[in-house]
Amino acid sequence: MAKINILPAQVYNRIAAGEVIERPCSVVKELVENAIDAGATEIEIYVENGGTQLIRVVDNGSGIEREDLQSAFAPHATSKIKKAEDLENILTLGFRGEAVASIASVSKMTIISKCENAKCYSLTSDGGKLGLITETAGEKGTDVRVEALFFNAPVRLKFLKSEKGEEAEITNFVSRFILNRADIAFSYYVNGKKVLQSFGGGDEEAFVCVYGASALRQCFKIDTEKHGIRIRGYIGNQNFSKPNKSYQSLFLNGRYIVNATLSAAISNAYSSYLMKRQYPFYVLHIDMPGEAVDVNVHPNKADVRFANNQIIYGCVYSVISAILDGHTKALDYLVQDEPSEPLVEKTAPKEQKTKNEEGVLPQEEKKFGFATFTYEQALKELEKTSPAFAAHKKDGDVPFKEVSKGYIPISELDKLSTEKSGAEKLHEQFPDLFFKKASFGVESPKGKETKQEDVFAENKRFLEEIDKKKKQNRIDIRTCRYVGKLFNTYLLYEREDEVLVIDQHAAHERLVYNRLKEKMENRKIVKQPMLLPYTIELNAFESEFIRERYDEIRAMGFDIDEPEEKRFRVSAVPSDLQGLDLYVFFNDILGQVNSFRSIKIEELLKDKLALSACKAAVKGGMDLTRQEIDALFEMMDGDMGMKCPHGRPVVVKLSRVELEKMFKRIV
Ligand code: ADP
Ligand code: MG
Fold it and tell me: Coil, helix or strand for 165?
């Protein structure tokens, strides 16, 4: 048998780098997290050439002592946890001690750092080989420069996106840091130009810096606690949706996460308000006891594992759906506008928008802005309204702020881990919310490892269950008995122990829509030049996507180019689609931003087809004969989706139990 070798540190680090440092944005993430853990109140981020030439993060945090400077580069060197028990209650963003070592092994990395009342020192690593510590000039805090990323990992370089693509990913990350830590002043520069800045002035200000005041006006502000889970932040109102998921941010205990259970809870709460391929807009912070969630799951995947998925799901779902459905409970969840000192003038969506006779919201209500909100616009809006910004202008510098949470000195860690009285109380009340110590203990690291691998499978299983339940809700009309109709609009069917109430307009609409879609798949393309070209401004992420999809978009019959960066021009449209609302159409294309699927015209024209279907379908109030009704459902092939193409329900169910309760036969 071959001899077992213990890998030299440099080789090991490069293997670890493969896991932790996938692309330039992973470097930005790790460096900014370190700055936050160091208690910084001001963080500057510089990126050049999509991060491959330079990524630099400068902070005003605690700094690194001279004697620790070398160990910062060593694998598994961390100042953040000391012993296995600390893993049970992680309060910092980093804890693995892997990032610096990994980044250093695949780049030329320099750390310049100065602690309070100490000198400033610099240490450089070249692909993991350390130089000598030298004294240098510098401010309190840490300045980390990562140059020539992946210079010794050519395969990794090959797998990177274009410079713009990587840059867009980084911009997304930085935006999320701004939203996550509204108490920290961030500045973000790309190739020398400032693209984002926040001033540490709180949630609302951070939101405006990233999305603009008009987005804020279209959101509900939430702050509530349920079963020991605090949910706060912003969710888009019923008419404010987005074409892709890049407008969704979830922060769990101060950490940006992507979690299937939570996103399913949110999107299911929105499901009756969103058209297909429209996604909810949200910036949500969820805080819960550290014991109820495991963040030590995977070195770079932002997923977490909950001790109890059901409680989390139910909690988030019920809060958001109560707000969207206008339930009275929602009053307890919402933060009411404070009339004094509003950050921006707000016109809260007070009244429910009225629907037209087809039950469809007027077109202009459904529109949403492209993400063209720029740094310059943010400045303009903040100039008027943000106190932190005003202070910044006066002093000519970003104001320093107290940090409310963040860096926890090692000496405090032990103290903190014993202060669990709140969590303990919760433990008694909701034992299910927590991990069972026996099955998830630090005592059995081996058992834990296998569990880590299961985490994604576990989340997936949970969602599959939800999906299965949804499928069980599908209705095969052939198994139902027609029993009559109400108001010439609602058809009544009986099936086992329930009554199905079917909206005849919605049902027919779904049918006509499916037919129109088929027709669209087999069209002929003739281009028609436009007198006035149509322009679209996009964010970095979306622009890159459009550039990559030029061929597909042109093949559909559009002429498109980019005369100015991130500003696209459409100068010809397919002649069969001359009246097309290009705004909505391109929003739909951008709906595919996160997928690798090819884009299909019949899918993109969903709105237009749905509208034609709506016009062609039988209306509510139209007296259909029994034959017509039977013919309608026969055409539908027995199987009916639960929603019309506009997203309204086709069928509503009333169970026998519900009826019997109404008549007090049962209680
Ligand atoms: P981790 O964050 O998991 O502890 P890293 O490899 O990211 O591991 O960092 C190693 C150590 O280097 C940290 O624990 C911290 O002590 C120190 N360090 C890194 N970056 C900074 C920074 N910006 N400010 C202060 N200390 C830092
Ligand atoms: Mg770290």
Answer: helix
Residue nearest to atom 21 of ligand 1 (CA): 34
Cα(294) to ligand 2 centroid in Å equals 17
* Of 211, 303, 208, residue with least CA distance to 252: 303
Residue type at 97? G
Residue 395 identity (one-letter amino acid): D
| 596's tokens | 């690798």
3-state secondary structure 243-303: CCHHHEEEEECCEEECCHHHHHHHHHHHHHHCCCCCEECEEEEEECCHHHEECCCCCCCCC
Q: What is the pLDDT of residue 79?
A: 78
Measure the CA–CA gap between 508 and 619, rounded to whole angstroms: 9
Strand ranges of the sheet holding 282-287, from the earlier edge strand across to the other edge: 219-226, 229-236, 282-287, 248-252, 255-257
Q: How far apart are CA 61 and CA 409, in angstroms?
A: 12
Ligand 1 atom 12, closest CA: 72
Residue 60 Cβ contacting ligand 1 at under 6 Å: no
Question: Where are the strands (E) in 538-665, listed by range?
Answer: 559-564, 567-574, 639-640, 651-655
**Whole-Å CA distances, 117 to 114, 182, 455:** 8, 28, 45
Q: Residue 300: its pLDDT value, please?
A: 60
66 Cα: distance to centroid of ligand 2 (angstroms): 18
How far apart CA 267 and CA 316 sit, in angstroms, is 10
SS3 189: strand
> Which residues fall within 8 angstroms of residue 86, CB to CB, at 6 or more apart?
95, 413, 417
450: CA distance to ligand 1 center in Å?
28
Q: What number does the ligand 1 atom closest to the CA of 98 have? A: 6
Q: What is the pLDDT of residue 417?
A: 38
The closest alpha carbon to 241, from 356, 354, 358, 361, belongs to 361
C-beta of 321 in contact with ligand 1 (< 6 A): no
Ligand 1: which of 37, 112, 121, 295 to mutate, judged by most atoms within 8 Å of the beta carbon? 37
For residues 207 and 216, is the Cβ–Cβ distance under 8 A? yes
**Looking at residue 284, what is its pLDDT?**
97
Q: Which of 100, 255, 300 is the pocket-test mutation for ligand 1 (most atoms within 8 Å of CB)?
A: 100
31, 43, 60, 78, best to mutate for ligand 1 pocket (most atoms within 8 Å of CB)? 78
Beta pairing partners, 194: 189
Q: What is the per-residue pLDDT for 437? A: 42
Would you give the DSSP letter of residue 97? S
Q: Which atom of ligand 1 is nearest to the CA of 81?
A: 4
CB of 80 sitting under 6 A from ligand 1:
yes
pLDDT of residue 447: 42
Q: Give the type of residue at 418.
A: T
Terminal-to-terminal C-alpha distance of the chain: 73
**Nearest protein Cα to ligand 1, atom 14:** 78
Which residues does the chain have with pLDDT short of 70?
1-2, 5-8, 10-19, 83-91, 276, 296-301, 336-463, 465-477, 594-598, 607, 634-648
User: What does the pLDDT read at residue 178?
Assistant: 96
Distance 34 CA to ligand 1 centre (A): 5
- Centroid of ligand 1 to alpha carbon of 400 (angstroms): 22
State residue 428's pLDDT score: 60
Query: Is ligand 1 within 6 A of the CB of residue 61?
Result: yes
Distance in angstroms (rounded) separating the CA atoms of residues 26 and 18: 11
